[in-house]
Amino acid sequence: MIYFDNGATTYPKPECVYQALDRANRNAFNSGRGSYKVARESTKLIDEVRRKIMTINDIDYANVIFTNSATSALNNLIFGIDIIEGDNIYISPFEHNSVIRPLEELKEKKNINIIIIPFLKDTWNVDIEKLKNMFALKKPKAVIISHISNVTGLILPYEIIFEESVKYKAINILDSSQGYGIVKIKDLKDINYIVFAGHKSLYGSFGIAGYIKLKQDILNKTIFGGTGSDTMNPKMLDKYPDGYEAGSPNIVAISSLKASLEWLEITRVYTHEKELTKYLIEKLKSIDKIHLYLPNDIEKILGIVSFNIDGYKSDEVGSILDDEFDICVRTGFHCSPLIHDFISSIDYGGTVRVSLGYFNTKKEIDDLINALKTL
After folding, report:
1. Where are the domains positioned within the chain?
2. Could you tell me if 151 and 334 are in contact, meaning their C-beta atoms sit under 8 angstroms apart?
3. What is the pLDDT of residues 62-121, one digit of tens each?
4. Which residues are bridge partners to 352 per DSSP?
5. What is the DSSP letter of 85?
6. What architecture is domain 2-11+267-372?
7. Which of 298, 313, 297, 57 is nearest to 185 (CA)?
8. What is residue 370's DSSP assignment?
9. Where are the alpha helices (DSSP H) in the chain?
10. I need a labelling partner for 19 at 20 to 30 A (CA). Which of 27, 161, 169, 354 fits?
11. CATH classification (class only), 15-265
């Protein structure tokens, strides 16, 4: 099997991650629920992973809140922000349904305005002058932007957008599910929250994700329950992280994340993925009937490339690659409904998405290209 669906989850994982999962499944204990040695060791491990999550992006101090998925983290943030009727929430056309659907629910309840940030279709650059005017007319309460598009691999220009929205004291959220740990995040001073997903670019297991709180704005709680501390208090604590992490932590998945973070510190994932991305684009361009979805500057693309083939729906291409060549790609709309109007891929039923990972090779890309040439 050739696996090109790393945008969904990276596979395989580093061997150290599998070993950590096995050890934790056999020997890990509940954190914060006991005063005995092994329980204290679990608490120590979790605290260490919080620090590693920050230091991998050179963050000196912040609050790291663990959730079971990036979707849960985004829900906690979107419903935790103190949003009132009439507030303006800005998103890019590249956003995932884990952003769009919570906002649509909030719109029904509080009658907020969801506003799409303007991007130029020919260059994929943000229309910053138009956006400045939009901000002036409709002040942003919050701005939510993907770090890397899960459909096109575009590294979004969040820095210039947040630089403008921070002037209005907007709450800026960067969804780094596709890039955290691989691509350094710049201009941290303009960001309120960063969302990460352990099973994607961080190369950990399923079941661990979260967000990094970089500023002191107040976030309302959306989950309540046991924390292992201050038990006689019937109300949730106000402090971080206890007040925002009810229930038993997934110590097994967190153990895998510790191992993957240590692996990332010594592995040149970005360099390898960048090289493979350029190689894949070059090879795809050699096939006449392929329609590629790219900006003018391919340096802005990392790890994910979308395309279609004339005469085929995207799912038809995926089925052929799977059935006849044992090649795994993702097809369809990829849980990102807005982007397909922007790139004009609706008539194809979405796109064929190739998402690369550290363990992919140029030989596997060559096999994909040879398979596509038979269509």
Report:
1. 2-11+267-372, 15-265
2. yes
3. 899 999 999 999 999 999 999 999 999 999 999 999 999 999 999 999 999 999 999 999
4. 307, 331
5. T
6. Alpha-Beta Complex (3.90)
7. 57
8. H
9. 15-27, 37-55, 70-80, 97-110, 128-137, 158-165, 251-265, 269-285, 314-325, 339-343, 362-372
10. 354
11. alpha beta
